[in-house]
Amino acid sequence: MNRREFLGLSSAAALAVLYPGANATALAGLARSAKGMLVVADHRYSDSLIFARALGIRGAGIFSMKAGLADVWFDELAPRLAAGGRKLTGLTLESELFVLERLAESCGMRSRYVGRHDWRARSGSQHVLRGSIGIDQVAQALAGGAELWAATTADGLMTATAGPSWQERKVSVDLARATDSPRFLVSWMMTPSS
Amino acid sequence: MPLPPGLSAADFDNVCRELRSVVGEEWVVTADEKVASYHDPYFPGTGEQHLPSGAVLPASVEEIRAVLRIANRVRLPLWSVSLGRNYVYGGGAPCLNGSMVLDLKRMQGIEVNEQLAYAIVEPGVTFFQLYKHIQDKKYRLWISCPALGWGSVLGNTLERGVGYTPHGDHAGQQCGMEVVLANGDVIRTGMGAMTDNPAWPLYKYSYGPSLDGLFMQSNLGVVTKIGVWLMPEPEMYSPVDIGVDREEDIVALIDTLRPLRLDGTIPATVIANWMRIVATHTTRAQWYDGKDAMPPSAIEKLKKTMRIPHWGLRFGLYGPTKVVDEKFKIVQKAFSSIGNAGIVRAKYPRGAKIAPRHQAAAGIPDVELMSLNWMGGTGAHIECPPVVPMIGAQAYELYRKRTALFASHGFDHYSGFTTTTPRTFFNTGSIIFDRSDPGMTTRARELSAALIRDAAKSRLGGYRGHISEMDLIAEQFDFNGHAAMRTYELLKDAMDPEGILSPGKQGIWPKALRTARREGERK
């Protein structure tokens, strides 16, 4: 399945693609499993939309940055994060993570995972994942995703358990860059600091 | 985290206990994860030299005075920040390793007077907050804000930051201050030296010498309030974009602009080169794979494909509609004399929704940092903009020299000429680098130092600088054997004898540290 096809699926169908073989009960559970999570989406890049969609079909709230990062922060994210207990995630440009990390500090949030996805070399791609969560689970999900790596990475983040300390993994897998994608994106997740 | 110089771990624990009794348990920060917020996020390979020992967050003038009493007694160096978002210059990180950050963000008082168009703000008030306050109250006032609106109004103003409206010279719009001195005394400057004088935020000067300048880019006091003048909302706001295609056209562009700046036709202005324009829309890797600076052929291809000029001049015209229209006719006639100049104008009558690309010159804050993505990786930038007279040939010569220096270090030249005062520019030259690449980070640092030294050869000095370069920049101001620095040191020794306030800021060190540093240099 390619990116465009995935984005065109209904929520149920998209879940079925990510979880082939899951029965209806399991799918219904999965459809609620990310409720309360906030996902930022950059409308310019299909991989960012796919990442968000993969969580949106699990009940996460998707927030587009089309109106500008300031608007989405002050109008949508900050009020929700101020209430506490949420996770904030996205697949975006690095500058957007930089800004959101600093804004989200005021709501007591800290980055627990950052994945750097790099296509700047003349061929292939390099992925460096760091976090205080189950990095191996995320790495495995990323590596197995092929064209839908953004969706499987999002899924991997959902299932990764908390880890005791920051770890790093380099993932060697040649993932095709989307034609609309810049050559460097970051996947990330923030949680309330303990 | 490093300890403050001269304090043992036990001493530091005791000091923190005392500070907690002043500001409350949760407002003295020593846990590594939380102190990390004060690190320089862009550190150009100097991060280990500028680490705080912790942070203390007072909520009032009285708490600040109590903190200073403790700091004076034990000689605890304090590094004042309003919010610490001055990232390109070091963020919340201190010059002196081990300083405790004095974080004033809890002080968030705002007072706005619509009739006389001013605000009085405390350090923790951001441009976003001031903007929202004015919008919520439906005041017909505009603020001026820098490219990123998340910083402190007070902090940015004290650093002589700039915006893009006619009030873009933020230090020029400052009127009146309240300052806590190192000895705990509290002063108000200007007419504020008289209790309840209503002209405090209205009249910039004093009876007697003006003190305000002593506390700008300074470590002579802790500023707790400033007055800032606001702009009445204009009947018409008309942003104008003028583009020229050749590098050498900058001469004619500046020489045409100058009389229109001097006679007030055109207010604050930015001239951006191709990279500064394009970095807000794309990344380098889309256009060029080489490790060296982009060659002219790649730049021309990029310009043609993205349909951008080599230089873009942008400014706003403001005021009654008829006046704005007449000003535009003057502008159009003047710049049409430059053969290939393209002139585009938009018009926003009062109340109209302003397009995102025109919001900066309307004082609408934002947080877009797209240019950080230029090199990919973990984007960072550093710069020391020199102050440049508004003369076309001089600016072009400087630009060519700096382009060569950028190229010799493997960087593309991000350049802009920003004018908020009518006779000069700040020549912004952001070195954008990937700080996860140690080699590139080293080159960025080397380039930055080279640019500072090269500007000084042309007798040009920086207007602001990174904490790791403040000494180097200060050294360039050499008139009469560095007489200005001798004067700053006289004041520093008199006003802060224990040397507790932001040691090293702008190259001004307290006596004890000065002597030790000079001895270290001699060795």
Structural class of chain B, please? alpha+beta
CATH superfamily of the largest domain in chain B: FAD-linked oxidases, C-terminal domain
| Largest binding interface between chains | A-B, 24 and 29 residues
How would the global form of chain B be characterised? globular
Give the tally of structural domains of chain A. 1
CATH top-level class of the largest domain in chain B: Alpha Beta
The CATH topology label of the largest domain in chain B is Vanillyl-alcohol Oxidase, Chain A, domain 3
Helix content of chain A: 25-40%
What is the CA-based Rg of chain A, rounded?
Answer: 16 Å
What overall geometry of chain A do the principal axes of the alpha carbons give?
globular
Number of helices of chain B: 15
Class from helix and strand fractions of chain A = alpha/beta
Helices and strands of chain A, in N-to-C order?
HHHEHEHEHEEHHEE
Distance linking N and C termini of chain B: 28 Å
Number of strands of chain B: 21
Topology:
The complex is a heterodimer of chains A (194) and B (523).
Chain A lengths: L2 H5 L3 H8 L5 H7 L7 E4 L4 H11 L4 E4 L4 H14 L5 E5 L1 H12 L3 E10 L7 E8 L1 H9 L5 H11 L2 E10 L12 E9 L2
Parallel strand pairs in A: 1-2, 1-3
Antiparallel strand pairs in A: 3-7, 4-5, 4-7, 5-6
Helix pairs in contact in A: 4-8, 5-6, 7-8
Chain B lengths: L8 H15 L4 E2 L2 H4 L18 E3 L4 H14 L3 E4 L18 E4 L6 E4 L4 E4 L5 H11 L3 E2 L10 H6 L11 H4 E7 L5 E3 L33 E8 L1 E2 L3 E9 L5 H13 L6 E5 H5 L17 H11 L4 E9 L1 H15 L6 E4 L2 E2 L29 E4 L4 E3 L2 H17 L7 E4 L4 E5 L2 E4 L3 H20 L12 H6 L3 H17 L15 H12 L1
Parallel strand pairs in B: 2-4, 3-4
Antiparallel strand pairs in B: 1-2, 5-6, 6-10, 7-11, 8-9, 8-10, 12-14, 12-15, 12-16, 13-14, 13-19, 17-21, 18-20, 19-20
Helix pairs in contact in B: 1-3, 7-11, 11-12
Describe the fold and architecture.
The complex is a heterodimer of chains A (194) and B (523). Chain A has 194 residues and is α/β, with parallel strands linked by helices. Chain A has one domain. Chain A has helices at residues 3-7, 11-18, 24-30, 46-56, 69-82, 94-105, 135-143, 149-159, and strands spanning 38-41, 61-64, 88-92, 109-118, 126-133, 162-171, 184-192. Chain A has a seven-stranded mixed sheet, with helices on both faces. In chain A, strand 4 and strand 5 (126-133) form a beta hairpin. The model of chain A has no long low-confidence stretch (mean pLDDT 90). By secondary structure, chain B is of the alpha+beta class. Chain B folds into four domains: 9-103, Uridine Diphospho-n-acetylenolpyruvylglucosamine Reductase, domain 2, CATH 3.30.43.10; 110-232, 2-Layer Sandwich (Uridine Diphospho-n-acetylenolpyruvylglucosamine Reductase, domain 3), CATH 3.30.465.10; 236-466, FAD-linked oxidases, C-terminal domain (Vanillyl-alcohol Oxidase, Chain A, domain 3, 3-Layer(aba) Sandwich), CATH 3.40.462; 477-522, Orthogonal Bundle (Vanillyl-alcohol Oxidase, Chain A, domain 4), CATH 1.10.45. Chain B has 15 helices and 21 strands. Chain B has helices at residues 9-23, 32-35, 61-74, 127-137, 153-158, 170-173, 250-262, 274-278, 296-306, 321-335, 392-408, 438-457, 470-475, 479-495, 511-522, and strands spanning 28-29, 54-56, 78-81, 100-103, 110-113, 118-121, 141-142, 174-180, 186-188, 222-229, 231-232, 236-244, 269-273, 311-319, 342-345, 348-349, 379-382, 387-389, 416-419, 424-428, 431-434. In chain B, the strands form five sheets. In chain B, strands 12, 13, 14, 15, 16, 18, 19 and 20 form an eight-stranded antiparallel sheet that branches. Chain B has a five-stranded antiparallel sheet with strand order 5-6-10-8-9. Chain B has a four-stranded mixed sheet with strand order 1-2-4-3. In chain B, strand 19 (416-419) and strand 20 (424-428) form a beta hairpin. In chain B, helix 11 (392-408) packs antiparallel against helix 12. Chain B is globular, with a radius of gyration of 23 Å. Chain A binds chain B through residues 68-70, 73-74, 93-96, 98-99, 102-103, 105, 110, 116, 118-120, 122, 182-184, 193, and chain B through 33-34, 37, 41, 85, 128, 132, 149-150, 282-283, 285-286, 289, 356, 365-373, 376-379, 436.
